[in-house]
Structures are given as C-alpha cells and as structure tokens.
Amino acid sequence: MTGTAAMSRTAGLELLDGLRAVSYPTLGHFLDEGFLDPRIQSVLEGVRIAGPAVTVRIADNDAIAMNHALLALYPGAVLVVDMSGDHRHAPVGAVTAAAAQAQGAAGVVVDGMATDVQELRETGLPVFARGTTCLTTKRVFGDGSAVNVPVTCGGVRVSPGDWVLGDANGVVVLSPEAAAEVLEKALASDAAEPALLARIVSGEPLESVLAL
Question: Is residue 91 over pLDDT 50?
Fold first, then answer.
C-alpha cells in the first residue's frame, strides 16, 4: 500500500468512527439533503448502522439482480435497494438477509417492502423498509436492473460508496465530502447538548438557555 493510499484509508476509518459516534438527528441541524423518506424505517428495534453503500436497482420484480448485489457486498457495506417505484414486492427476506450477513454487510435499506419478519429479527441484520408483505420478487431477469450504479432510494440519490447512516429515527445518506464537512460540527453539537439539558433540568430560565 502506498503512503497516499494508507493515509486515505486512515482518514476513511477515522470518518467511519466519527459517523458511528454522532447522533444522526444532529445532522438534521446542519443539513436538509440526504434524508430518506421517513416511511422507510427499521424492521428491528434498537439498531444503528453506518457504512458505505453498495447499490442495486431492481426492475420487473427481478430477484436475480438481488443475488448479484449480494455477491458485490463486502464487510461493513450497506446494501441500498432501489425498487424502481415498486412498493409491493419484497426483495429482502430470510435468505437474502442471511447471505448479506455472510458477506459481512452492516445492513440493508430498501425503498420497498421486506418479508420473513421473524427470521429477519432472528438474524439480527438491520433491515430498513417501507413495511412488510408476503409478496416477494421472482426469479426473473429485469431489463432495467443493475448493480453498483447511482440509484434513488426514499427520494435520495445514492451512489456506490456514499455513507449510509440509519437508526430508529430513519436513514440519511451522505457523500464522502458532505460527511467529512458536517461531522465535526455535529460532534461538537452533541458534546454541548448534555450541559444544555442540565441547565434546563436545573430550572434555569428558558430565556437564558434557548436561542431566541
């Protein structure tokens, strides 16, 4: 590994550590873009993900495209699924989650449905979706399907390698540049919040605590 590559990898790891530590709602204090449709929520309770995106666009109920996307996963990645507007068929269930977990994925975010809810909860793999259904994708090939291309998920454009952050509040996607730019400000805001809350709890007049 060259010196430049080593420095880049170190910077990436430091950024990941920061993204794992920051409160995701704090990012909403500084940004307006990148927040997925709030109807995309975690199927599991108490989960939190941060990782680079591997993307797949699924057309025509194409389950085969999902299999190709699973092969493209790597440890720590988050699979982001664009269902091409299909909010009825589920591309992720027990087998998909097990395969993603075997690849070391950090989670799956699908702009559509999930299935096999109990099995998903048993695997523990974080899955974010619009809801659950018994209707699944099929073993067919969709002409418009593609892996690791820019996609749209929850109204947000997602490119391979973008940072995908998710918890019980929802999901936000940031380009590496946007993540690096906002992280320091967000962490500083998080660090200041306990003192602010303590002042409110102590009974200090709100006029002197809140920004007016």
Answer: yes
Position 179 in a domain: yes
- Read off the pLDDT band of 10 (50, 70, 90): low
The angle, 0 to 180 degrees and rounded to 10, between the axes of the packed helices 94-102 and 63-72 is 20
- β-pairing, 78-82 with 107-110? parallel
CB 163 within 8 A of CB 34: no
Q: Cβ distance 80 to 158 under 8 Å?
A: yes
In this predicted structure, the answer to whether residue 57 has a pLDDT above a threshold of 50 is yes
Range of the domain at 130: 24-186
Alpha-carbon distance 62 to 69, whole Å? 12
pLDDT of amino acid 14: 87
Helix (H, G, I), strand (E, B) or coil at 83: coil
Does residue 6 register a pLDDT over 80?
A: no
Residue 50, in any domain of the structure: yes
Please check whether residue 118 lies inside any domain of the structure.
yes
**CATH number for 167:** 3.50.30.40
How many C-beta neighbours within 10 Å does residue 87 have? 15
In a domain, 156, yes or no: yes
- Which amino acid does the sequence have at 163? W
Distance CA 164, CA 175 (A): 9
Region 18-39: mean pLDDT is: 97
Enter the pTM of the model: 0.91
Amino acid at 59: A
Domain count, the chain: 1
